[in-house]
Amino acid sequence: MLKNIYLALSVLFTLIIGSLASSGATDPWYLALNKAPLNPPGYVFGIVWPILYVLMYVVATRDYQYIKKLFYLQLFFNLIWSWLFFYFHLPLVALVDILILILINLNILNNLQTRISFALYLPYIIWLFFATYLNTYIVIFN
């Protein structure tokens, strides 16, 4: 029970602190960037990320003993991406961060114990690849 509370607080903390940096999406710096053709409207991120965090939490509670260290590590890299990109305006460094994040999460995906956990975690992996495309486009075309 305590493990689930700690996980929930960790996920919630990451979501809240990361979203504080992501509010930079209305910053003149971000608005002036050349964005990818498939860049969704800003409100999509506000819908997708909370859903992904809930799915991450569910998977972490199901497979905690197999992924706990990697899970907290990926939360850290997920959190700092927002700050690197939106607050510090370092898209290249943020790209390196998200590539590390993908490697960690592919490792997590490989360590999941059930098909259900795999299916619940897969949308997050797909979204990370999409976010990498968006980040890469900004690095190349700005």
UniProtKB/TrEMBL annotation:
Q: Which residues cross the membrane?
A: 40-58, 92-109, 121-140
Q: Name one Pfam family in it.
A: TspO_MBR
Task: Provide this UniProt record's keywords sorted from A to Z.
Answer: Membrane, Transmembrane, Transmembrane helix
Any one cellular-component term (Gene Ontology): membrane
Q: Does the keyword Transmembrane helix apply?
A: yes
One biological process term in Gene Ontology: tetrapyrrole metabolic process
Q: How does it sit in the membrane?
A: Multi-pass membrane protein
Q: Where in the cell is it found?
A: Membrane
Q: Does the keyword Ubl conjugation apply?
A: no
**Family assignment?**
Belongs to the TspO/BZRP family.
Q: Which PANTHER family match?
A: PERIPHERAL-TYPE BENZODIAZEPINE RECEPTOR, TRANSLOCATOR PROTEIN
Query: What is the protein named?
Result: TspO and MBR like protein
Organism this protein belongs to: SAR86 cluster bacterium SAR86B
